[in-house]
Amino acid sequence: MTRIEPSADVSPDATIGAGSSVWHLAQVREGAVLGSGCIVGRGAYVGTGVRMGDNCKLQNYALVYEPAVLGNGVFVGPAVVFTNDHFPRSVAPDGSLKRGDDWEAVGVTCLDGASIGARAVCVAPVTIGRWALVAAGSVVIRDVPDFALVAGVPAKRIGWVGRAGVPLEPAGDGVWRCPQTGDLYHEADDALTEADPR
Q1: What is the dihedral sign for C-alpha 64, 140, 79, 86?
Q2: Are 133 and 150 in contact (CB under 8 A)?
Q3: d(Cα 145, Cα 88) in Å, to the nearest integer?
Q4: How far apart are CA 44 and CA 70, in angstroms?
Q5: What is the pLDDT of residue 197?
Q6: What percent of the chain has pLDDT over 70?
Q7: For the chain, counts of helices (H) and of strands (E)
Q8: What is the pLDDT of residue 151?
Q9: Order of strands across the sheet that contains 69-70
Q10: Whole-number Å distance between alpha carbons of 2 and 109
Q11: What stretches of the chain show up as alpha helix (H) in DSSP?
């Protein structure tokens, strides 16, 4: 059953999937599409036409500006910001107020299973790879590879994570092991792949 709190502002032109919840003071704009089982936390913002897959979580006060695209199972932590403008300005050079058609929106793409830590900022256009993990407070200005653990300002890869989200441990010869699940991953050319892809 879909749950939308009375204080939430959900456009009648948005699509909210079965079993999704939109909590207090959240805003979901026109044309946004949320898959099934999604959670939009208190005060979160989902911009016009944003697309979210199934089982995504937007924590409190996350700001997901259009044209962001989130795959299945994406986690967006509290107060995360996805930007959408290369050269933001309130006004044109002549001082007149800029309108929606005065600029070209660029988006953040998060692939399946990616997680963005609290208060991180993703500066569009960037792609966060499958099952990657962006540490809290990071500023992402370039694409993040699948399974990468990135941190800092600007964010840089500091390790690898598996599907469980915990840092992987080296097992020798370019092989990495998840200490939680035992799953193995192979590293080659600064990329990580699953030994037994699902």
Answers
A1: negative
A2: yes
A3: 27
A4: 15
A5: 76
A6: 100
A7: 0, 26
A8: 98
A9: 15-16, 33-34, 51-52, 69-70, 108-110, 126-128
A10: 25
A11: none
Contacts for 142-147: CB closer than 8 Å, 24+ residues apart: 144/114, 145/190, 145/191, 145/192, 146/111, 146/191, 146/192, 146/193, 147/185, 147/192
SS3 100: helix
pLDDT in tens, 96-134: 998 877 888 999 999 999 999 999 999 999 999 999 999
Nearest to 126 by CA among 81, 191, 60, 73: 81
Residues 39-57: tens digit of each pLDDT: 999 999 999 999 999 999 9
Tell me if the bond preceding 145 is cis, omega within 30° of 0: no
With a CB cutoff of 8 Å and minimum separation 6, the contacts of 45 are 26, 27, 29, 62, 63, 64, 65
What's the rounded Cα separation, in Å, for the pair 19 and 30? Answer: 20
**Under 8 Å between Cβ of 177 and 183:** yes
In this structure, are strands 184-188 and 191-194 parallel, antiparallel, or unpaired?
A: antiparallel
92 φ, ψ to 5°?
A: -80, 170
How far is Cα 4 from Cα 18, in angstroms, rounded to an integer? 11
CA atoms within 13 A on the CB side of 186: 6
Q: What is the pTM of this model?
A: 0.95
